[in-house]
Structures are given as C-alpha cells and as structure tokens.
C-alpha cells in the first residue's frame, strides 16, 4: 500500500471541515510523552516518528476542542494537536469562561479507527501548525525570544 500508517492529509480549507469554527475548551498545553517510569521527569513530545523517520521535530501542543456542527455528542469534542516550536496563542475573546472561538491554519488530518468492539468507526486525529491571527511566533518556527534580538 502506498499510504503508510501515520500519513497526514493536508486540509486546504478549514471551513470545509469546520464551517462554524471550533470552540477551544480551556488552555493549550504541552503534549507529554508517555513514560512507564513514574519517577521520570515529564518530557514534551516532538513531531517525529522513529519507526518511519518522518516528522518535523517541532514540539507538540494539545488543545481540547468542540465542533459545534457535530450532531453526535461523543464525536463533538476531541483533541487537536498543534505542531509548533512555541505554544500558539488564541487571539479571540472568551465567549464564555474558558471557551473561545478557534480558527486554525495548516490543518492536517490523520485517519484512525475509533470506538470499541462492534461499534468502531472511521475517525481522524487533527493537527495544525498555528492559529489564525496569532503572532506569538508559533507559525514562524522561531521562539519569541529570537524575534526580540
């Protein structure tokens, strides 16, 4: 098969997938690597797959989002992973405490199987490279400290 596991499809138009934008629930946090050793220091995950040798090597960040157009409650909320060296900063004002409208740039989708037992279905893990209107440096691949110099 020509398409290998972990392949991400570019989504050229954010509004085709999320016509009413996304709702960010809470804050964007570092995506932490799984480590079976409980005493080890937490380490932030990087976008790199050692099995295939592919990835950008940039840091990964996790945002819990909700799609207001999704009709099934168990599919409406999901984790969106950002690939950027610095945390993307949403510019929209909070519409409710802890909730803001979110439009992302560089949207990619990775197919996956979700559900359990006989109730499995096709789903996607979504990735993005930045947030529309964000000038934190997340899209520029340089930390903010480098821009000040």
Q: In a few lines, what is going on in this structure?
A:
The protein is built from 3 helices and 10 strands. The protein is mostly beta strands.
First-last Cα distance: 48 Å
**Averaged pLDDT:** 86
Work out the strand percent.
Answer: 25-35%
- The count of DSSP E runs of length 2 or more, i.e. the number of strands, is 10
By helix and strand content, what is the structural category? mainly beta
Gyration radius, rounded: 16 Å
Unreliable stretches? 140-149
Helix percentage range: under 10%
The count of helical stretches stands at 3
H-E string: EHEEHEEEEEEEH
Give the overall silhouette. Answer: globular
Largest sheet: 8 strands, mixed
Strand order of the largest sheet: 1-8-9-4-3-2-6-5
Please provide a written account of the structure.
This protein has 149 residues and is mainly beta. The chain has 3 helices and 10 strands. Strand 5 (94-96) and strand 6 (99-102) form a beta hairpin. The radius of gyration is 16 Å and the shape is globular. The N and C termini lie far apart (48 Å). 17% of the residues are buried. Residues 140-149 have low confidence and may be disordered.
Question: Helices, strands, pairings?
Answer:
Elements: E1 9-10, H1 14-17, E2 22-30, E3 60-66, H2 73-76, E4 77-83, E5 94-96, E6 99-102, E7 104-105, E8 108-114, E9 121-128, E10 130-131, H3 144-148
Parallel strand pairs: 4-9
Antiparallel strand pairs: 1-8, 2-3, 2-6, 3-4, 5-6, 7-10, 8-9
